[in-house]
Amino acid sequence: MSYEISDCLQKDFQAGWHDLVHLFFNQCLAGNGTDQGIANLRNIGKSLAQLHPIGSSKTVQELEGNLNAKLSYFNWGFVRIAPAQTELILAHCAWPHAPKRNDEPKWRLASACILEGAYSQWLVSQGGDGKLPVIWEERNTQDVLLFRYANQG
Asked: What pLDDT is attached to residue 19?
């Protein structure tokens, strides 16, 4: 069977919900209140992770599997985790893209904020440090959102 790599990196999403989320993201990040909008989106991600906890994980592979089970439930793509000496790198693929290409930067920011909050909460639920957030590594990647879980100091 032949397939394009883009088939793995982007998925189709239900139009009505996709449009609603698009309007919500735009409203949260409108005007000069983006700092508050970003904080609100992170809190929404955290709250969502609290409503939908993941199972206990003893290994990085189990953690990745538990996260992917939850992401699959939301149809939000999948994550690959790369452990390093003092950090975890989370590569989130196949996340829902903006309905309109010119809205992609704002959509990417909003999606990353939601995922920062969710990943931070899910890692806290596994015994992670509540003061150590998951941080989006803002890069111009079209289909992958990269996150770091490490001491930033």
From this structure: 66
